[in-house]
Amino acid sequence: MDRFEFSSGRLQPEEYLVSKFSNVRLYDGDEKTSFEHGDVLFTNLRLIWCRNSNDFSIQPVLSLSYSLITYVLIDVHSRKLKKKLIINLSDTYKPSNPGPVLTSPFNYVKLSFKENVDENFVGNLDEVINEHHKNESSKSGNAPTRIKLRTGIVGIERSIHEKNKVTDESITVAFQDLSKLMTMAKDMVVISKTISDKICNHQGEISEDETVKFKSYLLSLGIEDPVTRNRVQNENQFYENLAKEISKILLGTIKEIGGMMVLTDAYCRVNRARGLELLSPDDFLNASKLMDQLSLPLKLRVFDSGVMVLQLLSHDDQILVRETVLLLRNHSSMSPQELSTLVKIPVSLAKERLIVAEKFGRACRDESIEGLRFHVNFFLENRS
Amino acid sequence: MAEINWPWQYNFPPFFTIQPNKETQKLQLDAWKSLVLDYCRSTKQCVIDVREANNSPVFHNAAISRKLPPEGILLVLEELAASGNAEPLDKTKTRWFIFWRTLQELASIIHTWAKDNGFTNTVCTFYELTNTPDQEFSGIDEDVLQKALKELEKQGKAEVILSPEINGVKFF
C-alpha cells in the first residue's frame, strides 16, 4: 500500500485508458482500508483508484505505476467468487510523491470487486504490465551510456579499463572457439581413422591399391595425435616427444629425397602436418637438437656455413661426395644452382654438398664475376 | 720473346681462385710458382709489380677471362720468397725481385762459368756478364746479378767492385 502515490488523474500524452471498474475497495495486504466504493482505472502505464471516475482527471487520485507491479492474479481463497485481485509489488522502489500510507508490512495489495473478475482481463493486464516492464528496461538500458560519468583523468582511465575488459572478454571467447575447433579436429581424425580401419576390413570390395592411396591421403591430412605442451609434464619431455614425432613424420620423405632436408623445409612440413597445433621455430630447433641423444634415425647437422639440415643417421658423406664428383665429371663444371636443379634439392643444400666435396679434396672452386662454380679437383688428380 | 709453354692449369678456371682446401691450395700454389718462374725466365723479367701484374698475361688468362686477384698474386710471391725465388723490393711489398734461379744457384753457376772460361783472377764488368750469350745469367737484371755476386763474395770466391761509372767483379 506504501507504493501508492497521490497524483493528478490527468492522463499523460502517451497514456490511454485500457479498462475501468467501479465500486472497488482497496486492501493493504489482507487488511481492509478506508478506500472503498471507488473506481479503478487501468491505463497502459498505471493503475488509478479514485472516488468518482466521472471527473477523475481534475481531482487528485491514488495511482500505482506498473513498474512497481510484478504480477497480478486472482485471489485463491475467493476462487469460487473470483471477486478479489492480488497485485504483487516489487520492493525495489518507492514513489517520489507522497502517498496515503507511509509504510506497510505487506508486499501486495488486493482489489475487491463487486462482480467476478474476468480471467481474460487478468491475462490482458499481465501482458500490459510486461510490455511496460520491457519498455522500462530498454529505456534504463540506454540511460547509463547517455549519462556516462567522465570526471577527469579517473573517468578516462575507467573508460579505458572498461574497454580493455570488453576486448579481453571477446578474445577469451574467440579462443574458446579455437579450442573447440581443436577438439572437433581430433574427432574428425578419429572418424577418418575408423573409416580407414573399415576399409582395411573390407578389402574384398576395395582393392589394396585404393586402401593404400586413401591411407596416404589421411596421413597427408595430418597427424592423429600431435604432441602439445599441455600434455606433458616438463619442457624436456615435450621436446623429446616432439623429436620422436618429427623423425616419425619425416623419415620416409627424407629417405626419398636423398637423406638430407633443410631444417626450414622440415619445419614447414611438420607444421603443415600438424595443421592447428603449430610449432614455434625455437621448439622445432630444440627438438631437433635432441634427436642425436635419443638415437632416432634422424639427426641435426650444422654445416660450417650455418645451414642446418636433418639427415639420416646412416647418411655417409663419402657416398654423397662420390655422387657429386661423378656429376661434376659429367658436366665438367657446375654451379650450386645447376646441381640443385639437376638433383632436385634446395640451392643452399646443393652448395653445401659441393663444399663438402671440396673439403674432401675432390672438388675445387672457381670464383669469378660469373659466380661460384665447382670443378673436379684436377690439381690432385693430375698430380704426377 | 720466347714462346711460353703454358701448363694445363693455366686453362683451368679454378686455378685463378685461391682454393680454401689447404691440400688443394698447396698443389695450386706449387703450380703457380713454377709458372711464374718459367714465365719470368722466358721473358727475362726480374721484377714484378703487384699493382701492374694483372696486365701481364701470366696472371690474366684472357681466353677464359680469369684473373688471379691481387691477394692471390701476393700469396704466390710470398710462397716464392719462402723458397728463395723472390724478394720484396720495398716494405709495402708492391715490387718484387723474381729469381728464377735462387741467388745461391746463380752464384755457383757464374763461378763455374768463370772458372771454365779462365776468368779467375780477372775483372769482369757487369755488362760483360749479362751480355754473355747462352748462359743462365744472360740478360739478367744488374741488381739481381749484384745480389748473386755478393753471395759469391761472402763465400770468398769473388770481390765486387762498385764505382759510380761502372760495376765489376773479380773472380778468385
TrEMBL record, chain A:
<dbReference type="InterPro" id="IPR011993">
    <property type="entry name" value="PH-like_dom_sf"/>
</dbReference>
<dbReference type="GO" id="GO:0032266">
    <property type="term" value="F:phosphatidylinositol-3-phosphate binding"/>
</dbReference>
<keyword id="KW-0963">Cytoplasm</keyword>
<dbReference type="Pfam" id="PF11605">
    <property type="entry name" value="Vps36_ESCRT-II"/>
</dbReference>
<keyword id="KW-0813">Transport</keyword>
<dbReference type="GO" id="GO:0043328">
    <property type="term" value="P:protein transport to vacuole involved in ubiquitin-dependent protein catabolic process via the multivesicular body sorting pathway"/>
</dbReference>
<dbReference type="InterPro" id="IPR037855">
    <property type="entry name" value="Vps36"/>
</dbReference>
<dbReference type="GO" id="GO:0031902">
    <property type="term" value="C:late endosome membrane"/>
</dbReference>
<keyword id="KW-0653">Protein transport</keyword>
<dbReference type="InterPro" id="IPR036390">
    <property type="entry name" value="WH_DNA-bd_sf"/>
</dbReference>
<comment type="subunit">
    <text>Component of the endosomal sorting complex required for transport II (ESCRT-II).</text>
</comment>
<dbReference type="InterPro" id="IPR040608">
    <property type="entry name" value="Snf8/Vps36"/>
</dbReference>
<dbReference type="Pfam" id="PF04157">
    <property type="entry name" value="EAP30"/>
</dbReference>
<comment type="function">
    <text>Component of the ESCRT-II complex (endosomal sorting complex required for transport II), which is required for multivesicular body (MVB) formation and sorting of endosomal cargo proteins into MVBs.</text>
</comment>
<protein>
    <recommendedName>
        <fullName>Vacuolar protein-sorting-associated protein 36</fullName>
    </recommendedName>
</protein>
<comment type="similarity">
    <text>Belongs to the VPS36 family.</text>
</comment>
<dbReference type="GO" id="GO:0000814">
    <property type="term" value="C:ESCRT II complex"/>
</dbReference>
<dbReference type="InterPro" id="IPR036388">
    <property type="entry name" value="WH-like_DNA-bd_sf"/>
</dbReference>
<dbReference type="InterPro" id="IPR021648">
    <property type="entry name" value="GLUE_dom"/>
</dbReference>
<keyword id="KW-0967">Endosome</keyword>
<feature type="domain" description="GLUE N-terminal">
    <location>
        <begin position="1"/>
        <end position="141"/>
    </location>
</feature>
<dbReference type="GO" id="GO:0043130">
    <property type="term" value="F:ubiquitin binding"/>
</dbReference>
UniProtKB/TrEMBL annotation, chain B:
<keyword id="KW-0653">Protein transport</keyword>
<dbReference type="GO" id="GO:0005198">
    <property type="term" value="F:structural molecule activity"/>
</dbReference>
<dbReference type="Pfam" id="PF05871">
    <property type="entry name" value="ESCRT-II"/>
</dbReference>
<dbReference type="InterPro" id="IPR008570">
    <property type="entry name" value="ESCRT-II_cplx_Vps25-sub"/>
</dbReference>
<protein>
    <recommendedName>
        <fullName>Vacuolar protein-sorting-associated protein 25</fullName>
    </recommendedName>
</protein>
<dbReference type="GO" id="GO:0043328">
    <property type="term" value="P:protein transport to vacuole involved in ubiquitin-dependent protein catabolic process via the multivesicular body sorting pathway"/>
</dbReference>
<dbReference type="InterPro" id="IPR014041">
    <property type="entry name" value="ESCRT-II_cplx_Vps25-sub_N"/>
</dbReference>
<dbReference type="GO" id="GO:0016236">
    <property type="term" value="P:macroautophagy"/>
</dbReference>
<dbReference type="GO" id="GO:0042803">
    <property type="term" value="F:protein homodimerization activity"/>
</dbReference>
<dbReference type="GO" id="GO:0000814">
    <property type="term" value="C:ESCRT II complex"/>
</dbReference>
<dbReference type="InterPro" id="IPR036388">
    <property type="entry name" value="WH-like_DNA-bd_sf"/>
</dbReference>
<keyword id="KW-0813">Transport</keyword>
<comment type="similarity">
    <text>Belongs to the VPS25 family.</text>
</comment>
<keyword id="KW-0963">Cytoplasm</keyword>
<dbReference type="InterPro" id="IPR036390">
    <property type="entry name" value="WH_DNA-bd_sf"/>
</dbReference>
